[in-house]
Amino acid sequence: MADFDDDDLDAASEEEHAAEQAAQFEAELQRQIALLPPQLYETMQPLLLLGSVASYMLLGHDDDPVPLALKELLSYDLDTLQLVVAAADNHSLARLMAAHTLQLFDFVVVGRLVFESALDEPLRAYLSRHQAPEGGFAGPRQYMLTFGESLLENIAQYLAGTDAELREELHLRRLQTESIFARLDDTLRPYYPPGHSPEEIQAEALDAADEAEDAEEPAVHVTFNAGQRVTLSTALRLPYILAELGETAFGRALGGVRRLRRKALERLAARLAASDAEEPLSLSRSELLRLYQAAQVCALSTVTDVMATGSLEDVMRNAAARSEETAEEIAASAHHAREVLLLLMAGFVEVVEVNHPDDEEIAEAKAEISQLAELLAE
């Protein structure tokens, strides 16, 4: 006769019991789903949407004080939020309400608090850009506060029923969450999906305006030789490199020059590099001004410390130092490169000024870079 291990019997019994409980839970869940109004998800969808956007804006910076405090107090984080976001119809919403009721409670509490915090303004601005559904309620904030409060009362009633002690625990949980927001409101900063921050939206609009301006009728036709095309293409890339490095006040200030935005500079540099040396290059008014200012920046860079590590001559000398040339050869090579670069840049700037002596826009473009150049002397 085979021997039976008591531990095996206990494990089998526990598995059977667990399976029975799961079956009972599923049966009860299906019963509850059948009792729910068919429009439940449709009714709650605006709140779920607004609450999820609010939580994403809050939790995106997950190492910030408020998200860290919420995770410690409530275990509320992006994983918890995903449980709520996954509800996409009546069935999944009912399962959420039955199996993750406390998480839904926290979701609504946090969502309401975000709308009452320093994130309220950027949150509503973001929602307005993406056309959050407003039909049927008086604005997202008021809807979230009003309907959210009503839902919290229903959840508390569902969880606690007549258990006064449990109801008090839920009340305390909510008070502690509110305390986190009250104490740490000044640490809140909005998180945006890539490409959706106000700065990125504004940059996109400015880039579109640059592109439209560059597409206007040509203002001049210029023939460049091969060396000029390569050198001027390099000069067009220098301003945004300096701005992104941000090592000097001059470099940082370049980021605010309207004609030296990266996409416009890259577009013109690519067109210039690909142009035929035998054919005149057509430049719109904005492109001429952009190239003019880039040449001024490059000319300044050859002789002054624009990178907090020296001039372009110093950079070229340091790069050449890794070769087998002598110190004298390296210095001579770098100096010659600087002289050629300066000659080409200054020559182009002079040609523009000589051919447009009374042009106000060119005078203003020159003054803008000259004003920034004063930062190099500080």
From TrEMBL:
Q: Where is the composition biased (Acidic residues)?
A: 1-13
Q: Where is the segment annotated Disordered? A: 1-21
Q: Which domain of life is it from?
A: Bacteria
Q: Which protein, by its recorded name, is this?
A: Uncharacterized protein
